[in-house]
# Entry
Amino acid sequence: MLTIGQYVRPESLDEAYALCQKKNNVVLGGMLWLKMQHRNVGTAIDLCGLGLDRIEEDENEYRIGAMVPLRALEQHAGLAALTGGAMEEAVRHIVGVQFRNCATVGGSLWGRFGFSDVLTLFLALDATVTLHHAGEMPLADFAALPRTTRDILTQVTVPKAPRRVAYQSQRNISTDFPVLTCALSEREGTYTCVIGARPMPAVAFADEGGVLAQGITEDSARAFAEDIASRVALGGNTRASADYRREICKVLVRRAALALSKEG
# Structure
């Protein structure tokens, strides 16, 4: 049961940041995972009045506010074109449309959940996040911060650099948490493969051996998948064992590589 002592809608990011410095105060986000916890919250901080619910763009980047719902990502034509449909594929299995209408980008990333499809894809897109106090930083650096960090995530920035992206996931049922996730991107001949739901948070790998450098074929895709599966740390939980995840990793990475080959 979640118990909230006080509910506040701050009028500025400075006010929100000051409030969240107290250990027992919590930023609500979409309040979908938070409400499932058993805890006492001193002050619940609602960011919905701070204009963080918009997706803006210029010729160089997309700027996605922390309060943008996942459904907006799923339906955004510009992000669909930029990612070749990978954005929709990454979020369309997350519970259901009603859930995705409430779950926010900021909440999905701030939690750095091991099961996060959103974190997996944005890492592959070379995204950066902006924190009100700490400023802008690569998403990979943010994901490595201690969970005790107390700041306000205000936006995610995705560069409009030409790239190819493929997203794959394995689930025991269509709307369940993923057993494993995989995002593979190619930009100017450089490949980045991100594996999530390990069940630890997503991590990125480069094609260090240049397996895909001469092009993607059935053989090179399989060799690349074997390489990634040999390097990634995997664990077990109620959904799958570490050994099962390693076999699934080989399948998902190979499929993602072949999907990029078809795009090319």
Observations:
- The chain has a mean pLDDT of 93.
- Residues 242-263 form the longest helix (22 residues).
- The chain is about 35% helix and 25% strand.
- The radius of gyration is 19 Å.
